[in-house]
Request: fold
Amino acid sequence: MVLVNEQRKLSASLPLIFRCIISCIFVLLTQFTLSLVPRFFAASPFIVQFALSVLVLLLVQTLCGWCRRLLGVYASAPAFVFFNILFIWGFYVAVVRQAVSSLIGGLFNIEVAMIIIGLCSIMSKDPGLVTNEFPHLDKLVEGSELGVDPDNENSLSRKRVRYCKICKAHVEGFDHHCPAFGNCIGQNNYFLFIVLLVGFLATEASYVACSVQFVGKSQNFDKSQSENDWVVNLATSTMLFSILQLLWQAVFFMWHSYCVCFNVRTDEWVNWKKYPEFQVIESEPGESFTRMRFTNPYDKGFLQNVKDFLSLRR
Reply:
């Protein structure tokens, strides 16, 4: 009986192991392909290399999409993120750290270790899954009006319970489903999500600064092309990759800063027409039609909204 249970566990874990292996291969393919940009366009301006890197990433993602459709090969988004972190960290330890001070190197290593811990935490943390303790929960689907009772603090509406189509679950304080972290972002892990986002921004900015310093020093060394070019190319490509991550994550962080300041969730902003508490019906005298506009019943003012966000720490 024990042997049968072990075999079942192994059979259940094999698909996950396979997806992680595929993710690792995609990471190596992505980083190798990106290194071709500074290899063949070293004389081009930085902005040109950056634009080409974006195109290369889009091509690699398209190739991955074809693999999924044609071969039925699926990768794991969280594993892809994790292996990218390990790749850049490994390259830093093996090469880039030689050009930076011990203090900066130590800080960068701490930053990477912290985001790895944070990544593992947010992947495993309960985002605020709601069980069947609420009446009619089994009938509540995305966009349903069941449970809407603005005067009842315990109603599904006031608890901001939303339905995630990916997880097929109801989540309290649902913001969005994050493929990169493989989990919903809700009431219980929203604070951790913002902290982790800040951690990624700080770590990537630190790596960009370190790689710029390394590339600058490497170009001043009097070495043969065969000895030095490949590491400089890889340092440049990983720097370009980190800058791209910085840009879109900075925009993402600004959006969530707005959400915190006005106490609104991403799902509520995008799908407010599905939730009656965000709707105000207006009609002008003498007009035969009505208008529906957005209102936020959860906005308590900037200071109170920030306090409510900080109270999510658990």
